[in-house]
Amino acid sequence: MSDAISLFRRATREGEEARNLQRIASEPMQKRALDQFRKAVDRAPDAKAALCDPRLLGVLAQALSIPQAASQPGLAARVLLSDPEDPRSAANALGDPRWKAAARTLKLHAGGVAALMAARGITRLT
To answer: How many CA atoms lie within 13 A of 40 on its CB side?
Structure first.
């Protein structure tokens, strides 16, 4: 029990979260995934085409806490491109609120590929 308390105290210290995020961001696999994400966004003519790239979708899925999006690109594109404010949209049709939150965060329905361009600094989503 005391180990859990000491770990909690250490994790909540001032600046600890920033240090941990910096450490994770410097890992080679993370760097490679983010570089691939940025390249895919730069090459994409539109948001729908961008969401067809499995590397881009994998990064978004991890950052937005919807891991099943990476294995279901059709569903992910349909939901993430839908308007979360429309009660009949795909984002609202699913029972999982993470999808609606992801669509609301990205705002691809309004911003298209420009919204993904803004998300190139994907670290703000993690």
So the answer is: 23
DSSP string computed for 78-122? HHHTS-TTSTTSHHHHSS-HHHHHHHHHH-HHHHTHHHHHHTTSG
Virtual torsion, Cα 116, 71, 61, 56, nearest 10 deg: -40
Domain ranges of the chain: 30-124
Spell out the residues 6+ positions from residue 46 whose beta carbon is closer than 8 angstroms to its own: 112, 113
Count how many Cα atoms sit within 13 Å of the Cα of residue 120 in the half-sphere of its side chain: 13
Share the mean pLDDT of the chain: 82
Q: Please give the model's pTM, rounded to 2 decimal places.
A: 0.71
For 91-105, write each residue's pLDDT tens digit: 989 888 999 999 998
- Are 51 and 81 in contact by the 8 Å Cβ rule? The answer is yes
CATH number for the domain whose boundaries are 30-124: 1.10.3700.10
- Taking the CB of residue 79, how many other CB atoms lie within 10 A of it? 25
- 21 neighbors 122 (Cβ within 8 angstroms): no
Distance CA 32, CA 9 (A): 32
